[in-house]
């Protein structure tokens, strides 16, 4: 995986989009697809798609395009989705609970396996198929289950503390839904998901 580590984030972010599209094609029994067709359907530049995919090897067949099954298998392997990735979530409020319930329909490779909350009234409740655990149990759970990915769905003012606790436990990749910047060491990757800033950016097009 080392050789992929210098790939720009923007390229990495497009790979799951390609993968979801290929899964849709596969469900329709489509066997091959050209970069032109991919570009039309995904509203992306075909040359950009070819360039993105060529970073990982040459899987296009001249005059035929890409084999859907080969390309999706390759993308799954590049993204590490060919194995199960256990995820923990901290903050089982409105958003946290919704994500847990949605997660049941997600691919088995990225699955929330345990949820934690700091409020006694939440501990012991069931969300999806999981029982909410107290924060004190997080570190042992993360270490015993070799969990590396965590989701933060606590209020902004608690996000940094929760991130620190996650990192201390062994988490190295964080998806942060709290609308605040969290500071992490250089070996930890954070992705922020902020609906408000997305809406603000979209308002430009009105
Ligand atoms: N609700 C939304 O639609 C939405 C959308 C986008 C982003 N967000 C953001 O997601 C976060 C959660 O939103 P929400 O509406 O679910 O909030 P919420 O108040 O319903 O839930 C927050 C949960 O975090 C827990 N918590 C608080 N401090 C904690 C700590 N130190 N350790 C562990 N658990 C702690 C609380 O007990 C609670 O269960 C917020 O930062 C919010 O801004 C929410």
From TrEMBL:
<comment type="similarity">
    <text>Belongs to the transcriptional regulatory Rex family.</text>
</comment>
<dbReference type="Pfam" id="PF06971">
    <property type="entry name" value="Put_DNA-bind_N"/>
</dbReference>
<keyword id="KW-0804">Transcription</keyword>
<dbReference type="InterPro" id="IPR036388">
    <property type="entry name" value="WH-like_DNA-bd_sf"/>
</dbReference>
<dbReference type="GO" id="GO:0005737">
    <property type="term" value="C:cytoplasm"/>
</dbReference>
<dbReference type="GO" id="GO:0045892">
    <property type="term" value="P:negative regulation of DNA-templated transcription"/>
</dbReference>
<dbReference type="GO" id="GO:0003677">
    <property type="term" value="F:DNA binding"/>
</dbReference>
<keyword id="KW-0805">Transcription regulation</keyword>
<dbReference type="InterPro" id="IPR022876">
    <property type="entry name" value="Tscrpt_rep_Rex"/>
</dbReference>
<dbReference type="InterPro" id="IPR003781">
    <property type="entry name" value="CoA-bd"/>
</dbReference>
<dbReference type="GO" id="GO:0003700">
    <property type="term" value="F:DNA-binding transcription factor activity"/>
</dbReference>
<dbReference type="InterPro" id="IPR036390">
    <property type="entry name" value="WH_DNA-bd_sf"/>
</dbReference>
<feature type="DNA-binding region" description="H-T-H motif">
    <location>
        <begin position="17"/>
        <end position="56"/>
    </location>
</feature>
<dbReference type="GO" id="GO:0051775">
    <property type="term" value="P:response to redox state"/>
</dbReference>
<dbReference type="InterPro" id="IPR036291">
    <property type="entry name" value="NAD(P)-bd_dom_sf"/>
</dbReference>
<keyword id="KW-0520">NAD</keyword>
<dbReference type="InterPro" id="IPR009718">
    <property type="entry name" value="Rex_DNA-bd_C_dom"/>
</dbReference>
<comment type="subunit">
    <text>Homodimer.</text>
</comment>
<keyword id="KW-0963">Cytoplasm</keyword>
<dbReference type="InterPro" id="IPR058236">
    <property type="entry name" value="Rex_actinobacterial-type"/>
</dbReference>
<keyword id="KW-0238">DNA-binding</keyword>
<dbReference type="Pfam" id="PF02629">
    <property type="entry name" value="CoA_binding"/>
</dbReference>
<feature type="domain" description="CoA-binding">
    <location>
        <begin position="80"/>
        <end position="181"/>
    </location>
</feature>
<comment type="function">
    <text>Modulates transcription in response to changes in cellular NADH/NAD(+) redox state.</text>
</comment>
<keyword id="KW-0678">Repressor</keyword>
<feature type="binding site">
    <location>
        <begin position="91"/>
        <end position="96"/>
    </location>
    <ligand>
        <name>NAD(+)</name>
    </ligand>
</feature>
<protein>
    <recommendedName>
        <fullName>Redox-sensing transcriptional repressor Rex</fullName>
    </recommendedName>
</protein>
């Amino acid at each position: 995986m080392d050789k992929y580590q210098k790939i720009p984030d923007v390229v990495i972010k497009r790979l799951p989009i390609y993968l979801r599209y290929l899964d849709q094609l596969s469900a329709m029994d489509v066997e091959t697809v050209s970069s032109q067709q991919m570009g039309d359907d995904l509203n992306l530049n075909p040359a950009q798609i070819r360039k993105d995919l060529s970073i990982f090897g040459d899987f296009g067949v001249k005059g035929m395009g890409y084999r859907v099954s080969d390309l999706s298998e390759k993308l799954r392997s590049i993204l590490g989705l060919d194995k199960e990735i256990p995820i923990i979530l901290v903050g089982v409020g409105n958003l946290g609970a919704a994500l847990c319930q949605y997660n049941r329909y997600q691919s088995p490779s990225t699955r929330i396996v345990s949820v934690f909350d700091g409020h006694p009234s939440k501990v012991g409740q069931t969300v999806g198929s999981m029982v909410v655990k107290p924060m004190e149990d997080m570190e042992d759970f993360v270490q015993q289950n070799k969990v590396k990915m965590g989701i933060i769905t606590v209020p902004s003012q608690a996000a940094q503390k929760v991130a620190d606790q996650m990192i201390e436990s062994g988490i190295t990749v964080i998806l942060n839904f709290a609308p605040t910047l969290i500071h992490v060491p250089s070996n930890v990757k954070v992705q922020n998901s902020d609906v408000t800033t997305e809406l603000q950016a979209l308002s430009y097009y009105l």
